[in-house]
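[READ THE FOLD]
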Amino acid sequence: MNWDFADLTDEEVEIVSAPTVGRARGKPKLAILDQLTILCRTKSTGKARFRCSGDGCQTSWAAPRQSGRVLSHAVDCRFLSAELKEEALENNSDNSLGAKVAKAAASSAKARDERHIKTNHLVLELLCDASIAPKVVDNKRFRNLVNHLEGDNGIHVSTTFSANHIPAEAARVTIASYALLRTCHNLTIGFDGGTIRKGQSIYTVHITTPDDREPYFVKGDVASGVSHTGEHIRDVLLSVIDKVGRDRFAAIGSDSTGNTKLGRELVVDIIPTMLITPDPCHHGHLVIKDISALEYFSTTHLASLRVSMHINKGLEKIGQTRFGTIYWAGYALFRLLPPIHELNLQDGSKLAWMKNLREYSDFQIQLQQLCCVLEPIARAIKCLEGLQVTVGDVWKFNVAITAVLHDLFEGNSLGIPEEVQDQIRFIVNKRYKQMIEGPSGPLYLSGFYLDPEHVRSPILFKASANQLDNAAPATFGPIAPSQAKVTDQDLRDSMPTYTKVGAFLLRVLAIELKAGRTAPQFESYKTADDVLDALRTQFEAYTRQHPPFSARQKSWTKPYLYWTAMLAHVDSGVLAFVAVKIFAILPNSMPEERTVSRFTGYNSADRGSQEASSVVAMTKGETTTKPPSMNWRSIKTVFGREPVTTPTSDVDSDAPLNAEVSDAAVEGLAAVNELDTEGASSPPGETHFETAKDGVDLTIPFFRDLLSDEPVVGADKIGSLSDWAARSKKTRGTASRAAPTMTFDGEVEELVF
């Protein structure tokens, strides 16, 4: 228990223990403890204590100090130096059960001691993986069980687990994570903020690897008592980035609240080679929120909530994340409207208005309209929650939303007023521009373009474009600027995206060169300008699918693997250097969302007094992953629907319900509370979707197929290159000499593609 800091006074001379006779007993004292603590006494009782040596920290411990408690505190103490915190982390890791299990197995430890260590480690894994409070190990029934299985089990008490074992294991996992991450390039760092029941704030920081998309929870910053400014977030992120290496990161992602948005921008100001990826799932949720707040839908929204709160039988549960809950609650309710309408509703019931045929019919129509409008957005969000999602997926699903809405408004079988259609277009267009044309420019469009299965797609061409094969082959290898000539005029004329994507890739490469980045792919070129010219040449060759870009292998199951293979060719390596970076990026913040969900599991109502540091330490013991998402059909079974239960005919909807109010109603209420229902919005209208203005043909079946329950005919006719593999030719290998250092000294914004 912490002591009143004002009652402590420092001691100048440390208390010396009484000499022992014979061999010294007990564990050897850790030298770092003398750097982390200061001996003091209480003024009121005169008893010895140790306080944290951090200037400004008021944490203290009773004497004798326990290394586990001191080290666990020191790892995250914001008043200690980075060097001391790192040393504390390493020492705490050495004290972990996982480390002791490994040491015992490799040494001549006694069988009994080794068994006790292993048993406690297994209990620790159970507590973390199953979100069980450590105090369960003190439970009489638990002790009866383990004593029955093995009387001499050596299982420690709960305070030892919570104060020592769990933080030490978290330290071991953290050190192992950093060691692995230091071997990777093109990492993605993501972060988010959350609050536990005790009111303490936590900023979670994850780093995701490029190839297997494995997220590592490396830091839980307990930010209570600290102003959550953009500068604070920047400092937290830089402290993590610097442990791995600034040159190893490709992107930074988060939601777009004020402080998180500023925090990531401040990081990129310092490390300009990092691209910013706002979370598309949060962004899609904002689209749903904006549409639901329209004046036309506001009464439907509130009425549907009243129904949900009073009829809970058969309502399906909300998915694992909170995104789009307005749609999922509304959809569940819409499926139940017919049986609900058949109820014997008593006069005076809060649902009695449903007996009025006109009111019921209007409500049913508007609820159906709302669900149909929100459905493609909610489905796209679900598809973008996977860990294998690419930046190109973000672009195509955002376009798919507009394609489905375009079809819905074109036929307008639901009778949505034109004014409301225009308002919806305005909302979708505004959010589309914020996301797709956001802080990193055409990043998402470039991800779609650089997917080799899409480069010949009609999506990227003007309607009157000629076939690419009519053009002359591109020249490979390094060329001097004086030798450069326009060989791609047909591409510039037929593909609106060609120059936009090319200019973006050129800027990305120039920023890398300006930062002094080196790579084996640059070694055939004398200057940074030569490298930039090579990218122009190789980008044209890729678009025309000339060798080596025409090569295909069955093992290249995703664009990242295709471009990794292209790194080995001198005629494709420069473009591949940029493309690998783009496809390495995890564009969503789902690792953060799932970690915060784990916080909720650990920090349940009966464990509301838990410290934030304990919640963070337990969460580090588990990593949650999901299968990759390709389209709506491939992921909708992940959260299967429960069968609809028809309510009995004689029900008083105002009577108390024995069962808990449905999850759909609770989540729907939370979603509604986020809306300013007193001031329903009436935004200006727009008659066309932004994607159509950009030249994208929204009638192409490919987009509607992404969000459809059934395959759409013609969706696979998007220019697949699988039949072009025979055109691949053997190309020159890369040189073996070391890559020279090149620096681009020009102005990135003045580059011309």
